[in-house]
Amino acid sequence: MTKVQNLTILGATGTIGVNTLDVVARHPERFNIVALTASTQLEKLVEQCRRYQPRYAVVLDERAAARLRGMLRDAGVSTQVLCGIEALEQVASMPEVDTVMAAIVGAAGLRPAMAAAHAGKRILLANKETLVMAGRLFMQAVAAGGAELLPIDSEHNAIFQSLPREFKGDLAACGVRRILLTASGGPFRTLPLDDLPHVTPDQACTHPNWVMGKKISVDSATMMNKGLEVIEAHWLFNAAPERIQVVIHPQSVIHSMVDYLDGSVIAQLGNPDMRTPIAYALGFPERIDSGVSALDLFGRGLTFEAPDYSRFPCLKLAFDALAQGGMLPAVLNAANEAAVAAFLAGQAGYGDIAASIEYALARAISGEPGSLDDLVEADAQARRDAGAYLQTRAIN
Ligand code: NAD
Ligand code: MG
After folding, report:
1. What pLDDT digit, counting tens, does each position of 272-304 carry?
2. How far does the centroid of ligand 1 lie from the alpha carbon of residue 200, in Å?
3. Residues with Cβ within 8 Å of residue 7, at least 6 apart in sequence
4. What is the DSSP secondary-structure string of 221-250?
5. Does 129 contact ligand 1 (Cβ within 6 A)?
6. Residue among 226, 99, 88, 94 at smallest CA distance from 153
């Protein structure tokens, strides 16, 4: 019989968190939920606690915790409520937890993912920002802690599935020539370039193929999401930037590919539904049912295009930040988070996103981070720089 896996889900109320619980619910004999965490969606968290009876629920601060305690008491649920970053680190690293789904959005996911790495957990990594900000430190922590890393991002999960099982970080030794990272091109792939500055947050959040959180939806529209994923692939697969090629594939049927020396290209295909990579990682090395319907190949064409940097300047900024290395990917990520938040709040135009990131990158100090604190500082400075740029734009 399969051993029951004890799970913590960081970011349980988000798109990835909800999809994870959907797969978990199909296999009650395999999984036991130890902890669920959320920032603001308390009603949803109460409903999840009622259904999955975790031992712990974690929220951002003491106020939210007090509210949640009252709501759980009224619902007759005995889950213990904790709060704050230390509590997130605690539920990501406690001995009774085997597997941590890291699905908090943004830089906030870094410290809990690090805690899981140091504690040697099986980490299902959705929070790509962890690798973008702190790739070297995180991979070192994974190795030192003896953790196991399984990518959830659909492209990286596809690459993981397309690499030989014995891959241990040396692509050349496995005969790999290139990683072909597919991208849908988002909602603005064919929009006339002149219309781009006028697009609205609602338009940017309407993704043609995937249903996702707002921040990553905007990142898909700008293709910063692919830029972050190039950096993510660099760290996960120890791939030099020139070995990673971005391929626009608007149908999102092929989720990425590995190109081998002998001319073979191995791909992973499927319907665009995050439950597939989630189920792959939850069941690994076994295959388990995800609830995703079988792929119907008839009546559809698969097409491919090269990305155009004048339409997607954020993709170029990400390649440049990766080439320069050090703290620049963390700066790129932080400036992007600040700019996207301003765009979603109606305080910045679409074109300001790339421009403010470029501004922050130009002011950033390079060099390798000695510790997480250096990264946190670079992150804060990048947010201030992007904010300063956006301020001047708002006044003029
Ligand atoms: P989401 O916005 O739907 O959910 C985010 C979750 O994080 C929520 O549970 C929220 O409560 C929690 N959270 C937000 N801010 C927090 C904070 N400051 N502290 C603690 N918790 C906080 O996001 P999502 O789409 O589920 O994405 C989650 C992560 O997975 C992101 O890093 C994203 O890039 C990655 N990812 C998502 C998809 C997708 O299809 N949605 C695909 C690939 C990768
Ligand atoms: Mg992805």
Report:
1. 999 999 999 999 999 999 999 999 999 889 999
2. 22
3. 24, 31, 32, 33, 34, 97, 98, 99, 100, 101
4. HHTHHHHHHHHHHHHHHT--GGGEEEEE-T
5. yes
6. 226
Class of domain 5-151: alpha beta
Write the pLDDT tens digit of every residue in 218-239: 999 999 999 999 999 999 999 9
Q: How far is the CA of 300 from the centre of ligand 1 (A)?
A: 31
Nearest ligand to the CA of 219 is 1
- How is residue 391 annotated by DSSP? H
Taking the C-alpha atoms of residue 19 and residue 331, their distance in angstroms, rounded to an integer, is: 30
Query: Is any ligand 1 atom within 6 A of the Cβ of residue 108?
Result: yes
Sheet of 254-260, strands arranged across: 244-248, 176-183, 254-260, 265-269
Q: How far apart are CA 43 and CA 74, in angstroms?
A: 12
Half-sphere exposure of 355 (CA within 13 A, CB side): 15
The owner of tokens 């929220």 is 59
Q: Name residue 278's amino acid.
A: I
